[in-house]
């Protein structure tokens, strides 16, 4: 029989032959019981090797479309025509909660010329040589236990180092038994919600605030209440009655950059005790503090076991590692470990072992000290350079982290969109609000080199003067 197969412009001839034969069978152009040309004949006609055609036939045979008869040839099976073509429209729909979740941000290819995104570290300063050595050492040691299923709570050596680091750097008093290694703040929020909240329970988040935890909670069927933030932190009196969980960033509020006052921290802890609620304290980037001594974390002030302390290595080392941690009251740890096991079992063992060694050798502390100096320089340069925007931007006081925010009197969305079209990547304060949206801009300085800050701001200034704002 004559079969039309077009290999024009194709690279994978075997796959092209397979796809076109399969489509012809499903469409009924080749009917059940009909014989296909011998492999040698079809190969000569298409000017390809016989092996290529045989491989396509073999795949169709394995999938039940064809059957071979010794001495007779290859035929379309009787059941092949009964298989429907996949429909581009599915009758299956996700829960409606997922319609409200925005798609993940697309990767930047190519990277923006001036990258002022918040929360992105300087990956050119990642200790590649040291990390390569540590990973290679663990692989060469042939530790079979690192190549199998691991402990959902995390590698014991890493949990010991995390507990020691949190105690020294942030006065978080906890043992390794209270540490659970996670993929970061989003997974921590999901784990805590799994073990404490039911569908319809109420949780509160800062407004403006970090969007992913709010989206995680909402996608789990939790009702999420945005709570305003003032100069002292989250407004405790505005937390709705019946709230079971509050997600906060007290040491360096995201995205405003302020620190929650001591009085407000004590008020929040007292509220949590009176309302039988849990506080998820995200201490995401306070390794980088440039002036003064940071206030104690909520966890250090908590004497009643109401705080789950969250830390991440994404801002200090690299988000690609997908390593973070939580420190929980002992009563929650067993359930959190079970939840971690049920979701994705455990963090990558080799990376955990390498990070534990990096911390034990003092490499992590040295890297933090080195990057703190670099980021302080950028923080100060950005603060000074924003003086050129004094006619419509007022920087908010901030002494830590990887970003700085400035408020404006009008919507900065048009300026942000124009800037992105011209190679300047930054965010509007309005991107982080839920209720009443604040006007302003959020400037990250982790991923932009010091010498690129002023040229980037000059381009932004030119766009603002051109009417983009």
How would you characterize the overall build of this protein?
The protein has 14 helices and 17 strands. The chain starts with 12 loop residues before the first helix and ends with a helix. It is of the alpha/beta class. The strands form 4 sheets. Strands 5-12-11-10-9-6-7-8 form an 8-stranded mixed β-sheet, with helices on both faces. Strands 13-14-17-16 form a 4-stranded antiparallel β-sheet, with helices on one face. Strands 1-3-2 form a 3-stranded antiparallel β-sheet, with helices on one face. The chain folds into 3 domains: 13-76, Winged helix-like DNA-binding domain superfamily/Winged helix DNA-binding domain (Arc Repressor Mutant, subunit A); 114-120 and 366-466, Aspartate Aminotransferase, domain 1 (Alpha-Beta Complex); 142-361, Aspartate Aminotransferase, domain 2 (3-Layer(aba) Sandwich). Helix 2 packs across helix 3 (50-62), helix 4 (128-140) packs across helix 11 and helix 5 (156-170) packs across helix 11. Helix 9 links the parallel strand 10 and strand 11 (307-312).
Strand count, sense and barrel status of the largest sheet are:
8 strands, mixed
User: How many helices?
Assistant: 14
Shape: globular
Which regions contain 5 or more consecutive residues with pLDDT less than 50? none
| The named CATH superfamily of the largest domain | Type I PLP-dependent aspartate aminotransferase-like (Major domain)
**Average predicted confidence as pLDDT:** 92
Query: What's the total number of strands?
Result: 17
- Give the strand content: 15-25%
What is the CATH domain class of the largest domain?
Answer: Alpha Beta
CA radius of gyration is 29 Å
As laid out across the biggest beta sheet, the strand order is 5-12-11-10-9-6-7-8
Q: Pairing-aware structural class of the strands and helices?
A: alpha/beta
Domain HTH gntR-type: 11-79
Family: In the C-terminal section; belongs to the class-I pyridoxal-phosphate-dependent aminotransferase family.
GO molecular function: DNA binding; DNA-binding transcription factor activity; pyridoxal phosphate binding; transaminase activity
Organism: Amycolatopsis eburnea
């Amino acid at each position: 029989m004559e079969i039309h197969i077009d290999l024009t412009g194709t690279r994978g001839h075997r796959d092209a032959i397979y796809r076109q034969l399969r489509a012809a069978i499903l469409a009924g152009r080749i009917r059940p019981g009909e014989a296909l040309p011998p492999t040698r004949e079809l190969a000569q006609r298409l000017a390809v090797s016989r092996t290529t055609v045989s491989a396509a036939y073999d795949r169709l045979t394995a999938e039940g479309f064809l059957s071979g008869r010794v001495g007779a040839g290859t035929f379309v099976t009787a059941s092949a025509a009964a298989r429907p073509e996949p429909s581009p429209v599915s009758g299956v729909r996700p829960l409606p909660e997922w319609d409200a979740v925005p798609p993940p941000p697309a990767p930047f290819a190519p990277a923006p010329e001036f990258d002022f995104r918040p929360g992105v570290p300087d990956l050119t300063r990642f200790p590649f040589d040291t990390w390569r050595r540590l990973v290679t050492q663990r692989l060469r040691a042939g530790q079979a236990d690192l190549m199998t299923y691991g402990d959902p709570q995390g590698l014991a050596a890493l949990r010991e180092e995390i507990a020691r680091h949190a105690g020294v750097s942030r006065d978080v008093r906890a043992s390794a038994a209270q540490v659970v290694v996670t993929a970061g703040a989003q997974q921590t929020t999901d784990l805590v919600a799994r073990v404490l909240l039911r569908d319809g329970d109420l949780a509160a988040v800062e407004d403006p605030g970090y969007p992913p935890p709010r989206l995680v909670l909402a996608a789990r069927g939790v009702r999420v209440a945005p709570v305003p933030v003032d100069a002292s932190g989250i407004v405790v009196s505005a937390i709705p009655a019946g709230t079971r969980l509050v997600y906060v960033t007290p040491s360096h509020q995201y995205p405003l950059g302020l620190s929650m006052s001591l009085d407000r921290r004590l008020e929040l802890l007292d509220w949590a005790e009176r309302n039988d609620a849990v506080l998820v304290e995200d201490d995401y980037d306070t390794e980088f503090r440039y002036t003064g001594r940071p206030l104690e974390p909520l966890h250090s002030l908590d004497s009643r076991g109401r705080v789950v302390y969250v830390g991440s290595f994404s801002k200090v080392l690299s988000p690609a590692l997908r390593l973070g941690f939580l420190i929980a009251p002992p009563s929650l740890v067993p359930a959190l470990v079970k939840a971690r096991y049920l979701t994705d079992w455990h963090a990558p063992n080799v990376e955990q072992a390498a990070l534990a060694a990096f911390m034990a050798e003092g490499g992590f502390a040295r890297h933090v000290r080195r990057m703190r100096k670099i980021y302080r320089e950028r923080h100060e340069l950005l603060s000074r350079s924003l003086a050129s925007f004094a006619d419509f931007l007022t920087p908010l006081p901030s002494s830590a982290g990887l970003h700085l925010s400035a408020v404006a009197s009008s919507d900065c969305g048009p300026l942000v969109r124009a800037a992105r079209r011209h190679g300047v990547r930054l965010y509007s304060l309005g991107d982080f609000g839920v209720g009443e949206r604040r006007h302003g801009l959020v400037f990250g300085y982790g991923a932009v080199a010091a010498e690129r800050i002023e040229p980037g701001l000059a381009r932004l200034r030119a766009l603002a003067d051109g009417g983009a704002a």
